[in-house]
Amino acid sequence: MDISGPTTAVIWQNSSIGLETDCPPEAQHVSLTVLLCLVYLVGLFLNGFSLWVFTCKIRKWRTGTVLQFNLAISDAIACPATPLMAAYFAKGSNWEFGNFACHLKIALLSAHFYGSIAFLTLISIHRYVMVVHIKQASPMKRKGFVKKLCIGVWCFLVVKAIIYGVLLPVTTDDGHQQCLSIHQKKLTSSYFTINFLLFIFGFIIPFTISVVCYSRLAQSLSRVNVKSPQGQAIKMKSLRMIGICLVIFGLCFLPLNIVRTVGVIVKKYYPMHCPLLLQLETAYYATYILGGINCCLDPLIYFFGSHNFSKAFRKSLRKITVREQERDNRSESDTVSYSAKRSGVYTVST
């Protein structure tokens, strides 16, 4: 995004001498739209396939399966918001879809990002309990309790989305309709407060819990002397799942929360630093796309964390491969038959 033009220079000059001015939104580069659509399209395919495996191919669900299924739902529901975001970028950062669509976007994105964090945290707690405290009784080992826990998470996400819809409406700023934007001057204080609540309770605390659980789990696994090939494979799968979860937190959610926090601080205390605000806006959208990569990485958790899922996944792939081979063989056979018929007709006619 070019911020070196004369308009920006005037704004920066005015801000440096303390004059009241505004920072109008700028159109984002087309690459952001392309990457956004690509990431969430891949995520939709992977999570759609995962949901199909969960619902159609796994007969007996365990507690871990319930958590992973809800994680897949939280990933998939972000996809309907993607066309709205892409159209917003294409229209020069101007929201033209009304209040309801804005509230829907906020609800979907909130449920996606913080639902994913919540279920990843519950999966880390569940894995810790199942491995480290394998012989001790725990509510996390009961499927009924885990189902109620997931319902409670979804109820909390719905209530949170309704509150956001009330506190963060569409506003008109500098001739642009804005929805969930740093340029909404009237909502600066609301964004500041909401961000720090999300940063502390929606990210820092769940991330800390996950790190503690996976650290204890890794220590426990490192002390286990597994001699059988099957036991060694299970140990390696658990360690890979630990690595994937921590990568998702570090790559997908950490940059998003840090950049957004810096953005709301600058907007509240240094609102006239327009070049910096515009750079932070672009950085936020870039980290938003990074956050969407969790949709593509979460299916690896299902594969490494659930034996039933990996077994059903491999079985489904084998069936698809066999069907493709049979279709190719049929097509080849039909081609040979057609060629033979043509050759026969040609011979008779001569």
From TrEMBL:
<keyword id="KW-0812">Transmembrane</keyword>
<dbReference type="GO" id="GO:0004930">
    <property type="term" value="F:G protein-coupled receptor activity"/>
</dbReference>
<feature type="transmembrane region" description="Helical">
    <location>
        <begin position="32"/>
        <end position="54"/>
    </location>
</feature>
<feature type="domain" description="G-protein coupled receptors family 1 profile">
    <location>
        <begin position="46"/>
        <end position="302"/>
    </location>
</feature>
<dbReference type="InterPro" id="IPR000276">
    <property type="entry name" value="GPCR_Rhodpsn"/>
</dbReference>
<keyword id="KW-1003">Cell membrane</keyword>
<keyword id="KW-0807">Transducer</keyword>
<keyword id="KW-0675">Receptor</keyword>
<dbReference type="Pfam" id="PF00001">
    <property type="entry name" value="7tm_1"/>
</dbReference>
<feature type="transmembrane region" description="Helical">
    <location>
        <begin position="238"/>
        <end position="263"/>
    </location>
</feature>
<comment type="similarity">
    <text>Belongs to the G-protein coupled receptor 1 family.</text>
</comment>
<dbReference type="GO" id="GO:0005886">
    <property type="term" value="C:plasma membrane"/>
</dbReference>
<keyword id="KW-0297">G-protein coupled receptor</keyword>
<feature type="transmembrane region" description="Helical">
    <location>
        <begin position="191"/>
        <end position="217"/>
    </location>
</feature>
<feature type="transmembrane region" description="Helical">
    <location>
        <begin position="283"/>
        <end position="305"/>
    </location>
</feature>
<keyword id="KW-0472">Membrane</keyword>
<protein>
    <recommendedName>
        <fullName>G-protein coupled receptors family 1 profile domain-containing protein</fullName>
    </recommendedName>
</protein>
<feature type="transmembrane region" description="Helical">
    <location>
        <begin position="66"/>
        <end position="89"/>
    </location>
</feature>
<feature type="transmembrane region" description="Helical">
    <location>
        <begin position="149"/>
        <end position="171"/>
    </location>
</feature>
<feature type="transmembrane region" description="Helical">
    <location>
        <begin position="109"/>
        <end position="129"/>
    </location>
</feature>
<dbReference type="InterPro" id="IPR017452">
    <property type="entry name" value="GPCR_Rhodpsn_7TM"/>
</dbReference>
<keyword id="KW-1133">Transmembrane helix</keyword>
